[in-house]
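User: Predict structure, ligand zinc ion.
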Amino acid sequence: MSNDIHEIYAIKYGRHERKKTENYLGGDPHDTPDPIDYFVWAIVGPSGTFVVDTGFDTAMAKKRGRQISKPIAEGLKAIDIAPDKVANVIISHLHYDHCGNYDTFPGARFHLQDTEMTYATGRCMCHQALRLPFEADDVVAMVRKVFAGRVEFHDGDGEIVPGVTIHHIGGHSKGLQSVRVKTRRGHVVLAADAAHLYAHLETGRVFPITYNVGEVVEGYAKLQKLASSPGHVIPGHDPLVLARYPVVKPGLDGWAVRLDAEPKG
Ligand SMILES: [Zn+2]
Ligand SMILES: [Zn+2]
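Assistant: Predicted complex:
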């Protein structure tokens, strides 16, 4: 009966110090600091371990002016996940901060929306405004995985295993997908960049990098419908996630938290 219940871990790997005005389409009247964190996520259940997104590496951090706090492989190992044993990686979308570290999961199949690959290899990438969050090398690395028979494409909503489903949201990137996970506390939704910060969900505002604003705000409603409560939606870049959820084990403070556990009071 409970063989579709999963654990979820959020593992921080990086940070970018920035101002609040950079996080909202149309800016923000407050010129206060509003840093974002970078995460990968791990879902662990009876069918194995599923990693959501693969982050960026040190070279990309330098190129993009971001900080790596702990490389993703280190974060996974700290919670006893061996990256080379991971059989499935779900890629939310192909932005540089979600699909780097190409060789960290040599045995994995990669789950991606049809639309995201079409978008990242098609006419939209002729436009600087749209290709800004993509890296050609990242996209090429994913194309190589297609030719190696290591990509499983999804069209819309789909099931990875019982209790783990993916849902096309679009909006921020044309083929963005979020992941819904059945846990002991109900259905938790890993929004990835369908919602960067809690504030986007709470105020209906939009992150400036956007393919389609209408799909972003419709996406907020879809995320909340998929989750057991609004509090079960996990935004993709909010430092508050680490503050709200319990640390996985001593020594991993500010690094890895359990999302299948109740948030701290
Ligand atoms: Zn993104
Ligand atoms: Zn992102």
